[in-house]
Amino acid sequence: MKRHKKFYNKNFCLIIPARLSSSRLPNKVLMKIKNFRILEYVYNICKKKIDERIIYIATPDIKIQELCRSKKIKFIKTSQKCLTGTDRVCEASKKLNKKYIINVQADEIFLEPKNIINVCKEIIKNKYSVINCFGKIFNKSDFFSKSVPKVVVNEKKELIYISRAPIPSSKKIKFNECFKQICVYGFTKKSLKIFGKSLKKTFNEKYEDIEILRFLEKGIKVKMIKGKGSKLAIDTKEDFLMAKKILK
Fold first, then answer.
1. What is the Cα–Cα distance from 6 to 235, expressed in whole angstroms?
2. Which residues in the chain land under pLDDT 50?
3. How far is residue 55's CA from residue 75's CA, in Å, rounded to a whole number?
4. What Rg value do the Cα atoms of the chain yield, rounded?
5. What is the pLDDT of residues 77-104, one digit of tens each?
């Protein structure tokens, strides 16, 4: 049986930002389902396609650092003061000096690993300095859920806006054909540096609690590429219980 080669490029790194002080579900990345913690699931998904030599966990928390040591996972210690996960990735990336940085969220335990490869391929074209994935919403509950960021793009598949509200909408506010964000990002070193200069969240970023909006508000175009959406991201206790059911 032919073994598939993992992606490796010395100009790349993949960083998973992880912290314990999540507002909606504290300590979630260390919560266990079957034999693995949530963070381990995400790391294992990443290493299906990406060489472990360029995968890092970025964290300020000792317990997460201890988990990484015990599992021989590379990690970078970051500040507790980071405004968002992307700010944490920005801080960690300064210690690696890579041209391209891939960001995968630490709660995406059902992520399709091919999305990561597609982001790598797109960012290396150098047409856009920020890449994000999006996929179709198939059910009404996701469309109206505040936990699911909905995206609107133009004809070039550039991000126009992203919101927790049901968009695009109509006067009747009914379920339309629409799309959601898939939380895999690609950044150039330059775009991430601009993002990380902010000492506070931008207006829409703070209002929506969606960090990718900071790039738009800074005038940086975001290229959206279609991908396969995951079944569930773990934001709440209900999500965690549902994830346990799915994995059984």
1. 30
2. 1-2
3. 8
4. 17
5. 999 999 999 999 999 999 999 999 999 9
Sequence-separated (6 or more) residues with CB below 8 Å from residue 33:
41, 109, 240, 243, 244, 247
The CA distance from 186 to 123, in Å, is 6
Question: What is this structure's pTM?
Answer: 0.93
Q: Which residue shows structure tokens 């699911």?
A: 148
**In this predicted structure, what is the pLDDT of residue 131?**
98
DSSP string, 63-106: HHHHHHHHTT--EEE--TT-SSHHHHHHHHHTTT--SEEEEE-T
The Cα–Cα gap between 40 and 29 comes to 8
Please answer whether residues 50 and 42 qualify as being in contact, where contact means their C-beta atoms are separated by less than 8 angstroms.
no
pLDDT digits (tens, 9 = 90+) for 179-203: 999 999 999 999 999 999 999 999 9
pLDDT of residue 4: 61
Question: Helix-strand-coil percent breakdown of the chain, rounded to 5?
Answer: 35, 25, 45
Classify the C-alpha dihedral 25-28-29-30 as positive or negative.
positive
CA 72 from centre of chain: 22
SS3 category, 234: coil
- pLDDT value of position 5: 86
